[in-house]
Amino acid sequence: MHTVAVIVGSLRKESFNRSLAKALARAGKDMLSFTFVEIGDLPLYNQDLDDNLPAPVVRLKEEVAAADAVLFATPEYNRSIPGVLKNALDWGSRPYGKNVWGGKPAAIVGISPGHVGTAVAQSHLRSVLAILNMPLLSQPEVYMMESGRITPEGEVTDPSTLSFLNVFLKRFAEWVAITGKKI
Ligand code: FNR
User: Average pLDDT, stretch 110-125?
Assistant: First the structure.
């Protein structure tokens, strides 16, 4: 079974995006093996440290390197991605020539209390993942509006939501199988 590093773009304890990621990990456990990779302990990126990476960065890079693919579950902050997520992406991309994200198939999901459902942030994230050389699942896009259908533990209480998430998971598993280790 292919392994997936899950990156959540929110550090909030009761993050809806973490709940969504947990829901996907639960629903998809027979298709993919999910491991959550934490980004809250990373220092702010500083190029001076490229030759002497801080321990949390080494840990991040090892955990991402060990995975076949990456799933991003992120909120939208002021019509873009949260700084903590960009920070993690920047660390993983350096030092030059040692981009840990490169070639890993990826997918993006997001949930928000607002109607936009993280669509603008996901669009920005797609641009960033392109320069990082991550083959990105195009469809289905997962823009969710928060409405109490996923518990904090990742249980999906609404059958149509679960059915949609299962379609996404099946496509993502196929995408990882097709594109993994080929770029
Ligand atoms: C937000 N929020 C938000 N929502 C949205 O749909 N579009 C946006 O541009 C923003 N901007 C924004 C900026 C900042 C700094 C914060 C803290 C929040 C609201 C956001 O969607 C909401 O707080 C979510 O609950 C955040 O996701 P998590 O932490 O629940 O995963």
Answer: 95
Closest protein CA for atom 27 of ligand 1 = 75
For the chain, give percent helix, strand, coil, nearest 5: 40, 15, 45
Residue of minimum CA distance from atom 18 in ligand 1: 77
The H or E element containing residue 47 is: none
For a substitution probing ligand 1, which of 6, 77, 79, 150 has the most ligand atoms within 8 Å of its CB?
Answer: 77
pLDDT tens-digit map of 146-156: 999 999 999 99
Q: Report how far apart the first and last C-alpha atoms of the chain are (Å, whole number).
A: 19
pLDDT tens for each residue of 3-40: 999 999 999 999 999 999 999 999 999 999 999 999 99
